[in-house]
């Protein structure tokens, strides 16, 4: 079962100039977006929309067109054709009124190394009419104990947190996060995920690019998978997993001297590698039951028994692999 998290979030939003027409809650609407570089179709007739308060993840292999799309949406790259509406603006002509409404967290922003964290965040907050309190922002991204440290004294992961603080300075309604946790250690990544979830709960709409499928699965309400400039599919992580039609893997280990060589009568034949048994099941409930009955009847203690449905990563690999062979 999937839960569409954006329905759980109370999201106060007042109509302002540049907002989409009444009744339309999409914050991003892209239709037929196309961009070529010479012979390269970097973005080819891409259409999708992102709803108010939604976290939408763009996924795809290197060179699939993610950065090109995001930079067109941010207003930093020109498109060849197609229409783009972000917060009611065309990013190509929205100018500073548009920029004040969005937050951009780039993969590697260049910093003034001699500034302290607090100085940089204060400066950035000062650029926006609607802004965060700098000290609260520093706490929000988990740099509270680094306030007075110069940028040159920060680790790679701490710099990425500073990137995030700077992107949030204008309290944006829409945040672009480009590979937000690349280079993070596991604890920092979990901290960043909690932060993104908190931003979502505050009503921020987020467009995320990532190569970490677990990140997309955890954070994204919906994902769009790109391959060679084309949008291959859009859906919730659960929809993509279901669409992949990949089997659930039931696995367990045999005891050192099994009482019988007979295997459980699962819908797909068990595959045996040494003491490790795997069933690629289309009917995981019935097959799990078969395995458990089989073990109980023979007094076999099942060790390492797991039932693993396909992950978003499995679905993504199947989908983009198909694209490569198309
Ligand atoms: N300024 C440019 N000039 C020429 N070709 C470009 C330019 N920018 C991007 N491309 C090409 O457009 C295609 C899409 O690139 P893009 O950077 O959007 O991919 P991406 O999905 O963001 O990749 P990655 O995951 O590696 O960041 C690639 O084939 C790339 O080589």
Automatic annotation (TrEMBL):
It is a peripheral membrane protein. Residues 1-15 have a biased composition (Basic residues). Gene3D superfamilies: P-loop containing nucleotide triphosphate hydrolases. Residues 28-253 form the ABC transporter domain. InterPro entries: AAA+_ATPase (IPR003593), ABC_transporter-like_ATP-bd (IPR003439), ABC_transporter-like_CS (IPR017871), ABC_transporter_ATP-binding (IPR050763), P-loop_NTPase (IPR027417). It is found in: Cell membrane. Residues 1-23 are annotated as: Disordered. The keyword Translocase applies. This is ABC transporter. It comes from Winogradskya consettensis.
């Amino acid at each position: 079962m999937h839960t569409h998290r954006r329905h759980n979030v109370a999201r106060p939003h007042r109509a302002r100039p540049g907002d989409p027409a009444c009744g339309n809650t999409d914050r991003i609407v892209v239709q037929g977006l196309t961009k070529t570089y010479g012979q390269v179709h970097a973005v080819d007739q891409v259409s999708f929309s992102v709803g108010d308060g939604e976290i939408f993840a763009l996924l795809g292999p290197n060179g699939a067109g993610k950065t090109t799309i995001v930079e067109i949406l941010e207003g930093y790259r020109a498109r060849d054709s197609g229409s783009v509406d972000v917060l009611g603006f065309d990013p190509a002509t929205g100018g500073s009124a548009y920029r004040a409404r969005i937050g951009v967290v780039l993969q590697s922003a260049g910093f003034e190394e001699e500034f302290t964290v607090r100085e940089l965040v204060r400066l950035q907050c000062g650029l926006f009419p609607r802004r965060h309190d700098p000290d609260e922002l520093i706490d929000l991204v988990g740099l509270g104990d680094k306030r007075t440290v110069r940028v040159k004294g920060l680790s790679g992961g701490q710099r990425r947190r500073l990137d995030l603080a700077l992107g949030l300075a204008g309290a944006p309604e829409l945040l672009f996060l480009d590979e937000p946790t690349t280079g993070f250690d596991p604890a920092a990544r979990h901290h960043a995920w909690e932060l993104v979830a908190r931003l979502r709960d505050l009503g921020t709409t987020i467009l995320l690019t990532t190569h970490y499928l677990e990140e997309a699965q955890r954070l994204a309400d919906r994902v769009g998978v790109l391959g060679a400039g084309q949008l291959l599919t859009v859906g919730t992580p659960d929809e993509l997993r279901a669409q992949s039609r990949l089997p659930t893997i039931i696995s367990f280990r045999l005891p050192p001297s099994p009482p019988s060589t007979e295997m459980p009568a699962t819908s797909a034949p068990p595959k045996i590698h040494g003491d490790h048994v795997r069933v690629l099941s289309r009917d995981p409930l019935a097959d799990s039951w078969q395995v458990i009955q089989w073990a109980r009847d023979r007094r076999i203690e099942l060790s390492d028994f797991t039932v693993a449905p396909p992950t978003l990563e499995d679905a993504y690999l199947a989908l983009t692999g198909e694209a490569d062979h198309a």
